[in-house]
Amino acid sequence: MKVLITGGCGYIGSHTAVRLLESGEEVVIIDNLINSKIDVLDKIKEITGKNITFYQEDLCNLEELRKIFKKEKFDAVIHFAGLKAVGESVEIPLRYYQNNLVSTMNILSCMQEFNVLKLVFSSSATVYGSPKSLPILEDFPLSTTNPYGTTKLMIEQILTDVYKANNKLDITILRYFNPIGAHKSGLLGEDPNGIPNNLMPYIVKVATKQLPVLNIFGSDYDTIDGTGVRDYIHVMDLAEGHILALKNKKKGLKIYNLGTGKGTSVLELVNMFSKINNVKVNYKIVDRRPGDIASCYASSLKANKELGFTCKYTLEDMCKDSYNFVKKNSNL
Ligand code: NAD
Ligand code: UFG
Hints:
11 helices; binds uridine-5'-diphosphate-4-deoxy-4-fluoro-alpha-D-galactose; Rossmann fold; globular; binds nicotinamide-adenine-dinucleotide; alpha/beta
């Protein structure tokens, strides 16, 4: 199968590219490198020993995208590309709507024009807003609290309408919970520009003394120790979920949560990271971060039943691999 990976130089896309190449598929990446670096391609090649065709292109450029679709004749598309910083999306919402919606509509119109039927789309647990109960099931009500989340919800709606108009399409929407960890080689991992927004990249920067202290946002939530609870999933398990989605025999429009089904608090994660890596992580408790919810974790029963999805990696692996990646990359 020849698979287009949009955003394949980014965090989740690069790990998925590795798994796809390892399972014998042909990979083409389109990325404009707005949030990633070109040397990721060499690293994917170093891990897999396989070549990738790469186009440095903005998906919002429909004419260039059409040329690539015409030339490459894809069998399937995994669409990761998008802007993803929640805080930034509140500051510059138009940029988020423009980038995430236009790029997806361009992909869909090229798929239509060149008769590509199979699509896997990166959605997010953010579409559940503040869930009414836990664990979160795929049919829970949907709502969002920021423009980034709204782009995901709007794209889910667009995909639903496009599928209604052409039920030959085979679309899988994957709602990710909180991906962390890195490839075990230490060659690929999460490498955000500037000060990280997300917890694990921040913990790693404090552990390596690039930042002085981790701010823990709130200790008065109704959770095991008062700090926020999330469902952390190893990025390699998440990558595997995409391989399963591509191979799924069930056709149509399908939606799956990809999480471990287990909640972990901020303090539990910090303590695990310190213990497993034998390193101190300075932290202080500060006010809650506006917009955060207390707890969020998946029911992954549907993905398990229909895709055969299971998580192989533990929280220990996630902490070890995240730290290993940063230690092996001296430029970080
Ligand atoms: P990332 O920023 O590391 O990767 C996204 C890639 O897309 C980057 O390489 C970026 O350069 C590229 N890109 C962005 N806009 C583009 C455009 N217009 N044209 C071409 N390339 C473009 O992000 P990630 O963590 O790998 O996330 C991948 C997808 O998963 C995103 O859609 C994100 O919203 C979604 N997601 C991520 C998380 C998470 O916590 N990482 C959680 C839920 C959902
Ligand atoms: N946290 C801190 N300090 C920090 C960063 C985070 O205490 O410096 C806490 C948060 O309050 C939260 C937990 O750590 O309780 C996780 O926060 P993240 O920012 O890592 O992740 P979120 O669950 O807030 O959101 C992430 C992505 C969203 C995505 C969501 C579900 O940023 O885009 O996971 O996939 F939608």
